[in-house]
């Protein structure tokens, strides 16, 4: 792997060194493209000179101060990048100066060629290496460590552990293709406790409602002409029913007492 990286760097440095050999421009190609873009923007600048090196440049409703001697502009693009901004380019063209003199030296051809003047040396293969009289370099002898051997490989610093890996994504459910069954997809849940939507009884935030026991209804055929009772009639019927039940219970008690008396007399007679 290291030998492959060395070869890539060797080829890259050669290609970069040959990039500016046939170029007649003093500025690097990418920097030249940025300067051309700023030239197009400088057409909308209106400058007002104060001295031979200081200007006020108006763009729309903004005003910028430019100093050619110090190579500064109030927008700070020239100070940070080292490439003249559109305000400075309009002033340079007004003074009929060479634009290349106001570009930072690190973007010029001479500095670029100096960076790639050195090259990586070529190397022979393993078979062409000179032999030595020393013993060959071998790995240390294998020594069995105590405990159960580890099966997991050693992970890199930025790699996640086995338990931290994301869980498997569940496969999407296959929709029901049976025409006799109705799919439940898209149906909103309804709670049987609060009768709200979006949740069920298990996750309902409201307190559980009391259970209402439903009594079984009367069996049999319903009457054709059911009795229609008013409120007053219903109350009087209830009173009459309670009085009749009291009279029946009283009569049954009297009969039972007479039976007990007769039995006692029969026993005495015997």
Automatic annotation (TrEMBL):
The UniProt record lists the SWIM-type domain at 64-96
Biased segments, Basic and acidic residues type: 155-166
- Keyword check for Coiled coil: no
Q: Tell me where on the tree of life, at the top rank, the source sits.
A: Eukaryota
Tell whether Metal-binding is among the UniProt keywords: yes
Family annotation (Pfam families): SWIM
Which InterPro entries does the entry mention? Znf_PMZ (IPR006564), Znf_SWIM (IPR007527)
Q: Where is the signal peptide?
A: none
Q: Which UniProt keywords apply?
A: Metal-binding, Zinc, Zinc-finger
Q: Where is the composition biased (Polar residues)?
A: 174-195, 236-256
Comp. bias (Basic residues): 145-154, 216-227
Where is the segment annotated Disordered? 131-270
Q: Name one GO molecular function term.
A: zinc ion binding
Q: Which PANTHER family match?
A: MUTATOR TRANSPOSASE MUDRA PROTEIN, POLYPROTEIN, PUTATIVE-RELATED
**What is this protein's record name?**
SWIM-type domain-containing protein
């Amino acid at each position: 792997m290291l030998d492959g990286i060395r070869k890539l760097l060797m080829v890259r440095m050669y290609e970069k060194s040959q990039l500016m050999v046939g170029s007649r421009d003093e500025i690097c190609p990418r920097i030249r493209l940025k300067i051309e873009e700023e030239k197009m923007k400088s057409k909308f600048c209106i400058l007002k000179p104060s001295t031979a090196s200081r200007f006020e440049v108006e763009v729309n409703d903004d005003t910028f101060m430019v100093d050619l001697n110090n190579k500064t502009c109030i927008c700070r693009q020239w100070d940070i990048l080292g490439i003249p901004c559109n305000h400075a380019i309009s002033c340079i063209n007004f003074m009929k100066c060479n634009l290349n003199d106001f570009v930072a030296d690190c973007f010029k051809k001479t500095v670029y060629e100096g960076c790639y003047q050195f090259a990586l040396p070529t190397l022979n293969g393993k078979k062409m290496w000179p032999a030595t009289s020393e013993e060959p370099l071998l790995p240390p002898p294998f020594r069995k460590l105590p405990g159960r051997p580890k099966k997991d490989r050693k992970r890199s610093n930025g790699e996640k552990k086995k338990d931290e890996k994301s869980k498997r994504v569940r496969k999407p459910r296959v929709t029901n293709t049976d025409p006799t069954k109705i799919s439940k997809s898209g149906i909103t849940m309804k709670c049987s406790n609060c009768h709200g939507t979006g949740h069920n009884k298990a996750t309902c935030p409201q307190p559980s409602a009391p259970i209402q026991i439903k009594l079984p209804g009367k069996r049999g055929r319903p009457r054709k002409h059911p009795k229609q009772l008013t409120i007053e009639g219903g109350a009087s019927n209830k009173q009459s029913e309670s009085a009749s039940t009291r009279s029946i219970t009283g009569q049954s008690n009297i009969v039972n007492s007479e039976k007990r008396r007769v039995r006692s007399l029969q026993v005495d007679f015997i």
